Amino acid sequence: MKLITSLQMRECDRRTIAGEGLDGPIPGRVLMERAGWGITAALRQHFGDLGQRPILIFCGRGNNGGDGLVVARHLLAAGLAPHVFLLAGRDRLSPDAAEQEAAYRARGGLIEEVSGEEQLGLRVTQALRAAGRFPPLLVDALLGTGARGAPRGVIGGCVRLIEGLRTEWDAEVLAVDLPTGVDADTGAVTGEAVVADLTVTMARLKVGFLFYPARSHLGRVRVVDIGIPPLVESDVGLPLHLMTREDAFLLLPQRPPDTHKSRVGRILIVGGSPGLTGAPAMAGRAAVRAGAGLVTIALPRSLDLSLEAQLTEVMTAPCPETAAGGLAEEAESAILARRETTDVWALGPGLGRDEESLHLVRRLVARFPGPVVVDADGLSAFAGEPCLRPAGAPPPVLTPHPGEMARLAAGDAAALAGPPYEIAQRHAQAQECVLVLKGAPTVIAGPDGEVWINPTGNPGLATGGSGDVLTGIIAALLGQGLEPVDAARLGVFLHGAAADHLLPEKGAAGLAPPDLIEALPSAFAAIGDPTRRATSDHWVSAGAFAIP
Q: What is the rounded (10 degree) CA torsion for 425, 429, 433, 435?
């Protein structure tokens, strides 16, 4: 499912209206009519008792307000009596919105023009008192995706009014395209913002919808197909995607009936240091639960007995260690000797930041020709350094959280500018890697510039060790034949799905990494159940509307 930025949406609109590369132009008023029809259909399907409750439509001066006026006209034609409040003078309307305003008035619709917060509050109170105590339905058609910053003036006053009506009158809210006050690209809310029960957005999900705090303002989301031609979208280029259950289902590794353990992934985990033996242990257990055939942990020699006491299903490979107890450079030959008997290497869990251990990681990544995952302290080995790989080797998978991403950028402020998906995209392309930028949500970027944003997971993942579990999952999926970017995006989806499976029982505060590991089989089973595939429903409640 493709996501879109506000700039890309404006460019798609512009090209469609101009007819660039098409058989002919599609006028803006036609796109607006389609948007209004879809919004009205969503309103009628989602909200009940429309004949009894007052419907208040708040319109700004731009095309978002024009969409609201189309909705008002359709409701009027259906025998309803919407109250339309225009928060701008008629002479300030955009051309398409002005056309819709005239069409609504021509059909007998009444519009109240308001210029101040006090006047708006008085008119709204009068309308509600006249309608009785039925909970009102409010339509937020104030500002579109191009708006930035906190709403000001009468628009800001209207946002406050809407929130007051939610509390005092049990009002429900439909947001046109996005709730006013929410940034469509970043998900930021810099001041007051509308909290919607239903957001009806045009053409594509806006990328900011996936990020907090915007995600808490949307309610349910429905997408209206306004007829942007596929050729236009292709020409504009939409490299951002929502990772869905349908995507995850298609990526699940399939095991032939005659397989054996050496065919489904021989994983080597390199890590461990004093006080941090739990990290490689959790990565190892997660790899087993995610389907790896054989898992071995290469660790400092003095930690071997303690790790063997923790693990039964994972093998160990004791290696030379530094005076501080971390992996020494002398471990290189012993680990490289396993190149022929292992398929995937995961480097970093519990490694520590001993410079000798970091140097070892750099050399191992540069000499192992198979897939690699680098996580945790292993990422410090590439702080400001390229992640060199042998010729022909697949791109490495790097899995930083924001703090580790800052270390990878080594103080380059430009590399950390912008929303997370831009940061991940830039680094993945510059370093020719797959970057998993962990967060809420986690972003996966490939070296070709394609980006996936993951919707699964919850605050229960905000605990030490959950990243080690993710490393083990991704390593196991690489071992089962997935390409690096596919292993990363499926691994992230499964990791979050396991946490979501546990949330009702454990709660966010009580969820621990070992629980995640035990829940992985349930997460695999749920994704593989064909009756449960269509749960992008969480975001699109009935797919995009087909426009007649």
A: -10
Provide the token pair at 325: 């107890």
CATH H superfamily, domain 245-528: Ribokinase (3.40.1190.20)
Question: What per-residue confidence (pLDDT) applies to 533?
Answer: 52
Termini Cα distance of the chain: 22
pTM of the complete model beyond 0.90: yes
The helix/strand count (H/E) of the chain reads as 17, 19
Q: Say what the pLDDT of residue 546 is.
A: 30
3-state secondary structure of 62: coil
At residue 531, the pLDDT reads: 62
User: Beta 83-86 vs 111-113: how paired, if at all?
Assistant: parallel
Rounded Cα distance, 324 and 301, in Å: 12
Structure tokens at 516: 């995640």
Q: What is the pLDDT of residue 544?
A: 36
Per-domain boundaries in the chain = 3-237, 245-528
Question: How high is the pLDDT of residue 262?
Answer: 83
Residue 268 pairs with which residues in a beta bridge?
296, 345
Q: Determine the residue type at 180.
A: T
List, in sequence order, every residue forming a beta bridge with 436; answer none if it has no partner: 444
What's at 71, amino acid-wise?
A: V
CA–CA separation, 475 and 373 (whole Å): 7
Which has the closest alpha carbon to 108: 76, 79, 139? 76
- Torsion 84-88-90-96 (CA) sign: negative
pLDDT of residue 541: 41
Structure tokens at 52: 């009894």
Cα–Cα distances in Å, from 379 out to 105, 159, 321, 465?
63, 44, 20, 16
CATH code reported for the domain at 3-237: 3.40.50.10260
pLDDT along the chain (548 residues), means of 10: 94 95 92 94 90 94 96 96 93 93 94 91 90 90 91 94 95 96 95 94 94 92 92 93 92 88 91 95 97 96 92 94 95 96 97 95 97 96 92 97 92 88 96 96 97 94 96 98 98 96 92 95 87 49 35
Closest residue by Cα to residue 183 from 238, 215, 140, 145: 145
Give me the residues paired with residue 202 across strands.
224
Instruction: Tell me if residue 50 falls in helix, strand or coil.
Output: coil
DSSP 1-17: -BEE-HHHHHHHHHHHH
> Which uninterrupted H or E stretch holds 130?
helix 117-131
